[in-house]
Amino acid sequence: MFSTMTNTTLPLPSLPGQSPLGQALEQPLLLGLFLPIHNGGWTMSTLPRDTDWTFDYNAKLTRQAEQLGFDLAFGPAHWLSKGGFGGETKYREQSLDAFIATCALAAVTQRILLVSTIHILYGPWHPLHLAKFGATLDHIAKGRWGLNIVTGFRKDEWAMFGQQQIDHDTRYQIADEYVDILSKLWSSNENLDYESNRWQLKQAFITPKPQYGRPILVSATSSPAGIASAVRHSDLIFITSPTGAQFEKAIGALPQLNASVKEHAVRQGRDVRTLINPMIICRETEQEARQVYQSILAKADQGAIDGFFHSHATGDSRSWRGHERDERTVGGNIQLVGTPEQIVEQLLQLKNAGCDGIQICFFDYEPELTYFGERVIPLLEQAGLRKPIAQSLA
């Protein structure tokens, strides 16, 4: 059996408690779904499965997650040349745009938060555009839309836009300025005049104003510069294990990492939540779960793995370091493998290590999400990690 949860609940962030985010944060452990809006999902393997990148499949998953009580669905973003990362599967060659796809989900859902990843420096996006788009989406989704701000760590992505990659720490300084402009446009009832070396706005104004002050803001980062930027403006921060995907190693390093992020936020007078991305392989017996893991590795797409590592080696990301080849093959920033009871025990440990939520990926999404809802969520409620949906909305 699993242990009881240590009470590490933090005060709510500054957004109103009745906002969709405020309601979601009433849950002891946030549940998110990492949507497979690109072919191959998170697993570079030819082992058969039905996971699909299409919008209809992802819309079905999102509605299913919402019915199970999940709090958010998250769309990742990639810019890849023909063939994706390569290999037999042409890993991630087919992909939906995260911004458009997750926005479209607002029309087919009612409660779940929807987070879009946008590379704000490619092109670049003008902050006036994104302020208007974001405010519009905020109204369409009734406060459920969020922006995951990324700056672009891969040189090949920058090259696709005809740009030279900007220095790592400078990118975050520019992102800070960008978000400051967004915030001014979202909050001001007067025209905005603004000029800097990068952005110029004259008599800029947007309506409608977001319903709860601003849309939800999200960051995914591990570097000192990234964390310093994220705690200034983000409500949710995705952290990554600094010791690889093996749970036993990761769980020892996460308490210090979570504490450091939250201490940085406190110095800024802010309260943030941290989330981590597990690949969950759950079966009735541990042996079955381990067999699935080994079967994925036995059918590893070696060409895709080579392409993935080569592409990422050209970048300057500080995240995902220490992840071995087999760990990246299976996917997930950390990997939870075992029975429903073992998965819940591991999630308790993550919560006690300071993680406020998880952003889950699965190998074969639809049946594994169904199984998670049937076998794991009831145990999460028993362990005090989740409130039943009706209770959380009361």
Automatic annotation (TrEMBL):
A UniProt-annotated Pfam family: Bac_luciferase
Residues covered by the Luciferase-like domain: 31-356
GO molecular function, one term: monooxygenase activity
The entry's keywords: Flavoprotein, FMN, Monooxygenase, Oxidoreductase
Gene3D superfamilies: Luciferase-like domain
Top-level division of the source organism's lineage: Bacteria
Protein name (database record): Putative FMN-dependent luciferase family oxidoreductase
